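Exercise: predict the structure of this protein bound to 2-keto-D-gluconic acid.
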Amino acid sequence: ASKSPAILVTRRLPDNVRSRLARDYSADLNEDDGVLSRDELLRRARDADALLICPTEKMSAEVIAALPERVKMVSCFSVGVDHVDLAAAAERGLIVTNTPDVLSDATAEIAILLMLGAARRAGEGERLVRADRWHTWSPTFHLGTEITGKRLGLVGMGRIGQITARRARGFDMEIHYHNRRPLDAELAGDAVYHESLEEMLPLCDVLSIHCPLTAETTGLLNAERLALLPDGAIVVNTARGGVVDDEALIAALKSGKLAAAGLDVFNNEPNIHPGYRELENAFLLPHLGSATVETRDAMGFRAVDNLDAFFAGKEPPDRVA
Ligand code: 8YV
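Solution:
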């Protein structure tokens, strides 16, 4: 029998996934779950045919160039691949895969949770109760806005955007979207396509971000574009913090231009812009989009499916172009 391929797994994965890796591979499972430093990663990669990584491991052009020649593949435990320099990977002939589909439901749930939490001021309300600062009921106490029947604008209409739209229809929201191209009619349903973001923004009571972070989308939601939203709009982000200009968003929340924001992702996580913590109208979560028992198992299995295909001499199903 040929020796099983060696995999460096950079983070501690769910038990079910670790068992499968231990069964089928010679796997370095990083049981202690520390984030590997660049040097430690490169040192341990010397014994690896492939890496299974999370977005906490930045695969810059420099790191990719320094990878031992033996490493042929990077299987990402994430749908986002902005932590990998794809051009550098392609140049080196490094195969890169991700885990699409399996986390779309979980992430769309968090998008809806953020919309509701921001609109109904849930975080603020919870803080009030916990701090024993809830002293009254009154007809005008702690009023929020409803998402029911409002206009939702989706920036990006891929798998997660589409499921978010489906859930939002349950709240009778009117769906608008901006995407590189319009969806086929049967997928789009009643969702209205906008070729430009500038055209869509003035219509959005709620804006939810579902595009990948790329050179084109970095800082997409800047001060000029945020200014195009109606007064009192709500901004929700479950994609990547880099799509939003923090200073501009914080200023819009502070001035009351925006009613609220719901954020699950940030620039430079977990060391987020401190301005967010001071804003009562920012509803903040620690990157929980895919954080369910079911989804993390499914992501791990999908990441291993990609390794299995590659080492069986097949095209990995989720190879990133
Ligand atoms: C994860 C994510 O929390 O898939 C992504 O792109 O951001 C989330 O699913 C995390 O990146 C898992 O490694």
